[in-house]
Amino acid sequence: MPALFSVKTQPKTSPLRIFVPETQNGTTTNNYNNKTPSPLTKRVPSASPSPSNSRVKPTKGTPEKVTIDESSLDNPDLGPFLLKMARDTISSGDNPNKALDYAIRASKSFERFSGPGPSLELTMSLHVVAAIYCSLGQFGEAVPVLERSIEVPDIRNGSDHALAKFSGYMQLGDTYSTMGLLDRSVSSYESGLNTQIEALGDSDPRVAETCRYLAEAHVQALQFDEAENLCKKILEIHKEHSAPASLEEAADRRLIALVYEAKGDYESALEHYVLASMVMIANGQDIEVASTDVSIGNIYMSLCRFDEAIFSYQKALTVFKATRGDNHLSVASVFIRLADLYYKIGKLRESKSYCENALRIYAKPVPGTASEEIANGLTEISAIYEALNEHEEALNLLQKAMKLLGDTLVHRSTIAGIEAQMGVMFYMVGRYGDARCSFESAVAKLRASGESKSAFFGIVLNQMGLACVQLYRISEAIELFEEARGVLEQECGSCHLDTLGVYSNLAATYDAMGRVEDAIEILEYILKVREEKLGTANPDVDDEKKRLAELLKEAGRARNKKGKSLENLLDSNSQRTKKEVRKGRSVFGFRS
Hints:
Elements: E1 23-24, E2 27-28, H1 78-92, H2 96-113, H3 120-135, H4 139-151, H5 159-178, H6 182-200, H7 205-220, H8 224-241, H9 247-263, H10 266-282, H11 286-302, H12 306-324, H13 329-344, H14 348-363, H15 371-387, H16 391-405, H17 412-428, H18 432-448, H19 455-470, H20 474-492, H21 497-512, H22 516-534, H23 539-555, H24 566-575
Antiparallel strand pairs: 1-2
Helix pairs in contact: 1-2, 2-3, 3-4, 3-5, 4-5, 5-6, 6-7, 7-8, 8-9, 9-10, 10-11, 11-12, 12-13, 13-14, 13-15, 14-15, 15-16, 16-17, 17-18, 17-19, 18-19, 19-20, 19-21, 20-21, 21-22, 22-23, 22-24
InterPro entries: TPR-like_helical_dom_sf, TPR_rpt
Keywords: Coiled coil, TPR repeat
Region (Disordered): 1-73, 559-592
């Protein structure tokens, strides 16, 4: 049943930073050693977000079309002057289209007079052009400009050129991240890291900063193995260059703990959280210690050590109330954790009470609270109401969250997760048409975000297929189950329970289409795997046996215990012509 499927909201993408090189006496200076902001700006207790003060949000309004008079670019001194004008215009907050005009003319001038070799001035002017495009919301225009800026520097000409290329890769990664294209974003960051390592070596402290940046991007893309390897490299660099028990090392321990938590290695996560907490206590970082206490509470709850979890949450709650006030969102976040905990131990009245306390804070947040943080909190509370079987209230909260986020590229992955969660709840209350529409919208957004190869995408496809079955759109359901099967085989393997669930659904739809032999062969494979994994006495195995027995009786033959190879079976099934849906229901049910 879809009730067993819980959709986690995807981490939201950060707004784009704007990079403006400084100028001194008409000459552009190199600022490429500046620390880059973190691509993972979601404030989770287990990861300390990197600073992002240099970012700006896209300017509202339709940008003006910039036209360039080529005859005005004949003066070789014009480029530095125009670049300074662009920087001053941005700093003063004047019309960004005017700044864009100055920056484009500067880049044209630098390109005209740069000579035969690569020009750092041209590279930096292109970075400014791209940043202004992004501030105007024209991310598609920024991408080719940044690609051009990466082509200009030649790393054989020294470290300045290497770092200029590095900055271009990182800014391109930021742009892709803002557009919701996580796979391209991660690829750009990886290219930037490789360029930086080539210039500085693989143990430079600045390489550790970029590794952390890339690790957070991998976490955002749910690529936890890659993130873990980078975190281990960061800790090795700290061991070589940093003082023992530094705050930087503590922040990185929180990140690797987050990765271990996501992978289900709770003991390792707890070890790193405790080590990070000890360092922050020694340095008087009370708020950071409280945030880490929330993370430690999450681990204790995952380990079913509920009394210790409550103690950690209450410690954090006391600090947040004392330092930030009773109506701060950090207080609400702890209320949500406590609500989840009390639900798990069966104290439903206390669980609902903590949800209501959190909702009162979200209804009247402190001034300056980001709408994204409120939306994330509402989504978490919705999941608890769903578990309490209050589906209408859960749907209402998700709709409020979507309204707060708006229909923007920045929040596309987050909205897809919310829509998938709404689809599950629509399905549970019997609103199958609404469920299908929600899943369809989520699938489209995940495809556009480059996440069509993730296990999450495969699960959403499976859920959409279930909704189609209820609407008697069997042919569409088969296509969705087959695509889900391909994704989950790649991401989870053919013996994973999620993959087996899709196989079962595919067999059921084949049966509904009259393709009994195909259904039998798939079900024989499922039963063989379940017997190997769970044993012949397991209730799930017994259920599969009964389903298979009914189909075999209908087909008039006995079970083939050897079975075909799954690869040959499913490839042949996907090529076979679909028959009309036969009358009557399938003899066995569907699985989520």
